[in-house]
Design brief:
The chain is mainly beta. It folds into two domains: 133 residues, no CATH class; 66 residues, no CATH class. It is built from four helices and twelve strands, in the order E-E-E-E-E-H-H-E-E-H-H-E-E-E-E-E. The strands form three sheets. A five-stranded mixed beta sheet has the order 4-3-9-10-12, with no helix packed on it. The protein has a four-stranded mixed beta sheet with strand order 5-2-1-11, with no helix packed on it. Strands 6-7-8 form a three-stranded antiparallel beta sheet, with helices on one face. It is globular. The N and C termini lie far apart (47 Å).
């Protein structure tokens, strides 16, 4: 069987420059859909970009050819120094316990997508998750967290309840805030730091593309401010 193009894909963080993506990783827009109250409900597929084996994505937030790099980072003397922790997610996570589920949370990974807020907030909901309806709601809210800040676990099995993603890079567009959100890294694509070390490979992560995060290369929600 022929391998898919994106197998073996990776993202390399360059010094004060763009993200270099290799391995034919698909790229497209993901629009946050909201209700009349502005609550985040789901994602809508937007524009998809032609498949290429390699491309460079803007990291400074000032390219004239977004989402791609056009060299502006050099003109504006962009400081892209990485400040994110290299410790595993599990070592940094706070755990919220419920009757049938656990919720783990690493707050500084928040990408401000706000799927965790409806129906009383997921931190409260997980503590009430003793019915199939509430469990489903907790799974939806935690699973829609693009950064993987929030992960829900089944108490009986100890297994994470994760959405099933193929490798893909999503450019999140925030309809309520009318801003461009982070790059949504889905499906376990390795992110390699400037010094050559690979960050923990995870099913969901978000990379900063506004240039303002205090947790580079990851998003910390600064784009919404």
């Amino acid at each position: 069987m022929k391998k898919k193009e994106h197998q073996g894909g990776k993202i390399e963080v360059t010094k004060d420059g763009p993200y270099l993506v290799s391995g034919g990783v698909p790229l497209g827009e993901q629009w946050i859909e909201t209700n009349a109250a502005g609550e985040s409900l789901d994602y809508r597929e937007g524009k998809t970009y032609p498949a290429t084996q390699q491309y460079a994505l803007c990291r400074c937030g000032q390219s004239g050819n977004k989402p791609f790099c056009d060299g502006t980072h050099k003109k504006v003397s962009f400081d892209g120094a990485e400040t994110a922790s290299r410790a595993p997610y599990s070592d940094r996570a706070q755990t919220i316990e419920g009757p049938t589920m656990l919720l783990t949370d690493v707050e500084n990974l928040c990408a401000f997508a706000r799927f965790c807020d409806p129906k009383g907030q997921v931190w409260n909901l997980v503590q009430q998750a003793d019915t199939p309806e509430t469990r489903k709601l907790v799974e939806h809210e935690a699973g829609h967290c693009p950064s993987g800040r929030l992960v829900v676990w089944d108490r009986a099995t100890g297994e994470a309840i994760e959405p099933k993603f193929e490798p893909f890079l999503g450019l999140i567009e925030d309809t309520a805030k009318k801003v461009r959100g982070p790059i949504w890294v889905r499906g376990g694509i390795p992110v390699v730091s400037v010094d050559g070390e690979t960050y923990e490979v995870r099913n969901r992560m978000t990379l900063c593309r506004c240039g303002r995060s205090a947790n580079k290369p990851f998003c910390d929600g600064s784009h919404a401010a």
